[in-house]
Q: What sequence folds into this?
């Protein structure tokens, strides 16, 4: 008897439960050490790439040095002029030259009459002899003055206004000018206000020039880093393919911008120092010719560190903008 055997299908094997691979975080010390090693490698590898093309890197650093040196020189001129003007006494005195016919007692009588005014704080009398002695000391024409037969200088009254308001001082000026004993009036506060306006304009000029040259520095560094990115586009594409993060790709270019800014700042300080040495002797000769002691200061340590910090910050920021633009756009071509 033929017996038909019906095969019973086997039951499918049950799937094995999925096993999770536990993600073990490295200790904090190891992570910090790895982060430090990556930054040190990027720092010195970027410097090595710059030294591999010395002519291109040197020209870029020189351009950056000149761009950073110009605002420093303008700032030095402005700061020395500001300190020189602030060292002067606040010019509130009114110098009144009396008629040449008035002698010493008459000048003293005019001074006593003006001291009695409510808007006058004090009056100083300078005799013709005192004026001639002061002119002899400051001008250096002693032998020429000895040839004069008589003293041509008049008596001078230095009037100190009690009020510092312009309106009250203008009223006092009008009264003194209309006095019969007055020959000429000199009021130096007008010149002082003009000097303050010129210094304010110089300050604004320095700020505008510094901003424009900082932008030029940013563009130079950004264009240099962009060319470096294009030259290494294949290497960057491979790193993006294997999953490298944007921070890992961006880091060498950021340090390249750091080096460009730092070296450019050092070149700028060297250029400013050379200009100071070249102008030191003419400035000393001018001070001696003017018979007035004034010292011209240069770049101190605080300003030098600020320039280096500004240069590195501009270089870092310029490189960051360029690399972010290429990373956001995708794989560089």
A:
């Amino acid at each position: 008897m033929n017996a038909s055997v019906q095969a019973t299908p086997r039951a499918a094997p049950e799937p094995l439960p999925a096993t999770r691979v536990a993600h073990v975080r490295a200790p904090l010390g190891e992570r910090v050490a790895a982060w430090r090693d990556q930054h040190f490698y990027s720092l010195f590898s970027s410097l090595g790439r710059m030294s591999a093309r010395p002519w291109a890197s040197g020209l870029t650093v020189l351009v950056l040095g000149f761009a950073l040196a110009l605002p420093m020189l303008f700032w030095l001129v402005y700061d020395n002029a500001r300190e020189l003007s602030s060292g002067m006494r606040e010019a509130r005195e009114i110098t009144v030259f009396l008629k040449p016919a008035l002698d010493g007692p008459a000048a003293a009588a005019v001074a006593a009459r003006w001291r009695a005014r409510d808007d006058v704080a004090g009056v100083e009398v300078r005799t013709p002899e005192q004026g001639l002695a002061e002119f002899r000391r400051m001008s250096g024409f002693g032998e020429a003055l000895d040839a004069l037969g008589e003293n041509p200088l008049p008596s001078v009254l230095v009037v100190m206004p009690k009020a510092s308001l312009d309106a009250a001082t203008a009223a006092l000026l009008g009264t003194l000018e209309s006095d019969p004993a007055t020959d000429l009036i000199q009021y130096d506060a007008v010149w002082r206000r003009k000097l303050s306006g010129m210094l304010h304009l110089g300050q604004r000029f320095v700020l505008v020039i510094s901003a424009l040259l900082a932008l030029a520095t940013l563009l130079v560094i950004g264009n240099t880093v962009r060319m470096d990115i294009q030259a290494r586009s294949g290497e960057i594409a491979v790193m993006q393919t294997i999953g490298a993060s944007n921070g890992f790709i961006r880091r060498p270019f950021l340090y390249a911008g750091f080096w460009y800014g730092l070296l450019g700042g050092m070149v700028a300080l060297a250029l400013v120092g050379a200009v100071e040495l070249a102008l030191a002797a003419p400035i000393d000769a001018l001070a001696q010719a003017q018979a007035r002691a004034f010292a011209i200061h240069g770049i101190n340590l605080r300003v030098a560190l600020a320039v280096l910090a500004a240069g590195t910050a501009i270089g870092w920021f310029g490189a960051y903008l360029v690399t972010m633009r290429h990373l956001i756009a995708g794989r560089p071509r």
User: Anything to note?
Assistant: The chain has a mean pLDDT of 78. Residues 233 and 332 are 5 Å apart (CA to CA). Strands lie at 94-98, 120-126, 156-161, 182-187.
